Amino acid sequence: MSAEINWKACADIYAEGGFDVNVAKELGITIAAFYQLEQEQPAFAKFIEKGRTLSKAWWYDQARKGVWSKGFNTPLFNFVMKNTQNWADKVDMADTTDKDPVNLDEAKGQLAARLKVLEKSNPELLGEIRRIQGDKK
Question: What is the mean pLDDT of residues 100-128?
Fold first, then answer.
């Protein structure tokens, strides 16, 4: 990295929607060195935080201005935002399980009946299950 940082050029990159990697290129350093500088230099970290805000605002402006345009590339915009701004598709948390409540008494009866079948067909396995259950108590 050169001794003199062109802060204006770096700020302009962010203001035009650029990312950390673009600023690292301007500085002539790797992205790893960029992140190391961010960790070690509080003034640099503050500059980067402001720059990221400028970049994010630029991208939001693109959506705000382009959303009404037929030529707006929504899939590309979504791709960029997901990969650079931590956007994610909404995860549907709707309950898709059977809505009928479980009758616990009925379930206990079914379990008891299955355990009796297991006791007759494989008493060693049932003994091992009971041993493991005893270990957990």
Answer: 84
User: What is the residue whose two structure tokens read 């259950």?
Assistant: 133
Distance CA 22, CA 84 (A): 13
Largest Cα–Cα distance in the chain? 83
What is the spatial distance between Cα 58 and Cα 135, in angstroms, rounded to a whole number?
60
Sign of CA dihedral 2, 11, 85, 46: positive
Determine the average pLDDT of the residues in 53-81: 85
Mark whether 73 and 119 lie in a shared domain: no
Q: Which residues span the domain enclosing 24?
A: 7-84
Query: Looking at the 3D structure of the chain, how many domains does it have?
Result: 2
Q: How far apart are the first and last CA of the chain?
A: 62
